[in-house]
Design a protein that fits this description.
The protein folds into three domains: about 180 residues, Immunoglobulin-like (Sandwich), CATH 2.60.40; about 130 residues, no CATH class; about 170 residues, no CATH class. It has 24 helices and 15 strands. The strands form four sheets. Strands 2-3-5-9 form a four-stranded antiparallel β-sheet, with no helix packed on it. A four-stranded mixed β-sheet has the order 4-11-10-7. Strand 2 and strand 3 form a beta hairpin. Helix 4 packs parallel to helix 6, helix 8 runs parallel beside helix 10 and helix 22 packs antiparallel against helix 23.
Length: about 675
């Protein structure tokens, strides 16, 4: 689907972005079918320039029970061989709904229902999408009818919907059809029998759907059924796939009654940590005294994954009893719980949370410092001081926190943003990705000075490019704030050498290779980074440990090799436990830099590259930091950080492998274990 970006300078503000459509078939395979009989009241075929489309409005149900969604789905399918193009959106600012839809609803007497957004201050504007439908593709948009008309009670209503493809402000002549549909909507009174029937239908639906569809259906069960939904959600929370059980616990939080609270509290004792984490999130949302009691009691004895969820839930609970527990975690030394505490205070909100975060923004743990500044600025709408981010930006590693601190400073640092960023430049380095990133953000600031700086990570600069870069740096130097004196990067906590039996020598070695690359060895790990961008991570275990690594590879492959799992009779519960172990393995490999993205990347490496040792995505950046750092103590520190990162990863990979294999063996029956390890 082709998308063009348009920038219009007049009101309404209009931006074009990407929109996704569903493909029903390739152009060669697609053959239009007649409109199904049950949809003839809603859909029609329209002749458009160059093609034919099938479009209309399909209600959620023609007859429903009060409390079910009052929705209609606008749908467009291209039946022809040429593409069909139209813009969608750019029409919701002022009302929050797409006002190119015209929705009229009348009651049995013919009286038009009131518009909840009649006479808005202005109409139009906002993001818009340029839709390019190929043969057979379908575009849909769900319309909440209550945003167009006030439906206050059950009854029989006549609904008339229309949509003009030619928007009127970008196309002065109408050439495309106007889609229309009129249908009867019957809304029945709630009775116990009707409510039960709808709930049973929705529960049956949950057995065949996943992802967002499952979450929306479970939420609908809770919203529609209220107290009547609790027994059904309780049953779903006890049995079935992990996704369904977790989702049901989340839906129960929407019904903060004693009965639903009892169900969630029982799940807090489940053997599966993912279920306990889901229960924890639900308890925080309920904001009940008993829920807070349970969270506080569970925190000291829970494993890390669930403990982090508890901390976040305590913040969501907004309980005064939870507040000191959250803030005390900053003194615990557990970096993951400290990061969770930052986000818990964001959930908590209010002046006390702001004060607690501001008091801790000067921490020497720079990753945590960044998280605090981000939460204060983005989630709590607080002004920030440029000097808060300066220790992060002085750093040599182009980590996520370093890269994200630049736009954070640009957006919230005010007039100090430019001089603070300029003060962090390496003014004597003519070819530096670090300088390029800083100046790229400087150029985006209001009233930015000229800052043309060439750089390409895949090559060294020419003499002319380097000379020009040096001239740019010297011109910018007088505009910089005070140049901070270099100090070694503060270390939050040193990681000791791992002791093993039989012993493994993790003492790292380092050497520069031909062509500007490097090689670092530690334990069984041999990492090489070359100038051409390629990196290699050979891993050769000694004879003493080879059997353990072979077993690890076979266990790691099982979540990917589902056919092998079926042959072995591995149950969904066993597979879930194995995935949980792999998640814990990935968390260990993250070291002190835990994030969902890093965990996900390393988890995939462990599963899909099960015969190999994963590599740390930060090593490429660490190599650039070393390669481009100014000569002297800064370069030596970059080298030391690079070496230490490889050593710690090597240690974590070995220790994680041993722990993973021992725990995985306990999941399977003796017969399964013999077959896996054979």
């Amino acid at each position: 689907m082709a998308i063009k970006k348009l920038h219009l300078l007049y009101f309404p503000l209009f931006f074009v972005t990407l929109i996704s459509v569903a493909s029903s078939a390739s152009e060669q395979e697609f053959v239009p079918q007649p409109i199904p009989v049950e949809q003839k009241s809603y859909l029609k075929d329209y002749v458009a320039p160059m093609t034919t489309i099938r479009a209309g409005f399909i209600p959620y149900k023609a007859q429903l029970v009060w409390g079910e969604p009052l929705q209609a789905t606008f749908t467009v399918q291209n039946l022809g061989t040429n593409n069909f193009n139209f813009t969608f959106g750019g029409d919701y600012e002022g009302t929050g709904r797409h006002d190119r839809f015209k929705i009229a609803i009348t009651d049995p007497t013919g009286e038009l229902l009131s518009d909840p957004h009649a006479n808005p201050a202005f109409l139009g504007g906002g993001m818009a999408e340029l839709v390019d439908l190929k043969t057979g593709q379908i575009f849909t948009n769900v319309i909440d009818l209550t945003t167009f008309r006030i439906i206050s009670k059950p009854g029989i209503y006549t609904v008339t919907c229309s949509f003009a493809f030619d928007d009127g402000w970008s196309q002065k002549v109408s050439i495309n059809p106007v889609v229309t549909a009129t249908f009867t909507l019957t809304i029945l009174q709630r009775t116990p029998r009707r409510v039960a029937k709808v709930l049973d239908e929705l529960v049956a639906k949950t057995q065949a759907i996943h992802g967002d569809d499952l979450g929306e259906t479970l939420a609908l069960i809770a919203r529609f059924g209220k107290d009547d939904a609790v027994p059904r959600l309780a049953q779903l929370a006890r049995n079935g796939p992990l996704e369904l059980r977790s989702g049901a616990l989340g839906a129960l939080s929407m019904i903060p009654a004693d009965a639903s609270l009892d169900v969630v509290l029982r799940s807090l004792k489940d053997s599966n940590p993912a279920i306990r984490a889901a229960a924890v999130g639900s308890l925080g949302t309920m904001q009940k005294s008993r829920a807070v009691d349970a969270l506080l009691a569970s925190l000291p004895k829970e494993e890390p994954l669930v403990a982090e969820a508890i901390v976040l839930a305590l913040g969501t609970s907004k309980s005064d009893r939870a507040f000191p527990v959250i803030t005390n975690l900053f003194d615990s030394g557990d970096t993951r719980l400290q990061r969770a505490a930052v986000n818990a205070l964001a959930n908590f909100g209010g002046s006390n949370a702001i004060a607690a975060l501001t008091q801790r923004v000067s921490t020497n743990y720079l990753s945590l410092r960044y998280e605090i500044v981000f939460v204060l600025a983005e989630k709590l709408d607080q002004p920030i001081q440029a000097e808060w981010l300066l220790p992060v930006l002085i750093g040599r590693e182009q980590t996520r926190e370093w890269l994200d601190s630049l736009p954070l400073l640009r957006m919230y640092g005010g007039e100090k943003a430019i001089p603070t960023m300029l003060s962090c430049l390496d003014f004597d380095v003519a070819w530096s990705g670090r300088n390029w990133w800083i100046l790229n953000e400087v150029r985006a600031c209001p009233n930015a000075p000229p800052a043309d700086y060439e750089h390409d990570y895949n090559r060294d600069g020419t003499p002319e490019e380097r000379e020009k870069n040096l001239r740019t740096l010297q011109a910018l130097k007088p505009l910089a704030g005070p140049i901070p004196a270099y100090v070694p990067r503060p270390r939050y906590a040193g990681v000791p050498y791992l002791r093993t039996d039989p012993p493994i020598d993790f003492t790292p070695t380092f050497r520069d290779t031909e062509g500007g690359g490097v090689e670092i060895k530690s334990g069984f790990l041999d990492f090489t980074q070359r100038q051409d961008g390629a990196s290699l991570t050979p891993y050769s275990a000694s004879d003493s440990y080879r059997v353990i690594y072979q077993a690890s590879a076979r266990f790691r492959s099982l979540p990917h090799r589902l056919e092998r799992g079926a042959e072995l009779g591995i149950t969904s519960e066993q597979l879930t436990k194995l995935k949980d172990l792999l998640h814990q393995f990935a968390v260990r490999l993250c070291g002190s830099r835990v994030s969902d993205q890093r965990i996900g990347n390393l988890y995939n490496d462990l599963v899909f590259w099960n015969d190999n040792c994963p590599s740390d995505g930060d090593w490429t950046f660490l190599w650039f930091d070393y390669k481009e750092a100014p000569a002297g103590p800064i370069r030596e520190q970059a080298k030391a950080d690079f070496i230490d990162s490889v050593r710690i990863f090597s240690q974590n990979y070995h220790a994680g492998t041993v722990e993973f294999v021992e725990a995985a063996k306990k999941i399977f029956t003796p017969a399964q274990l013999e077959a896996v390890l054979r």
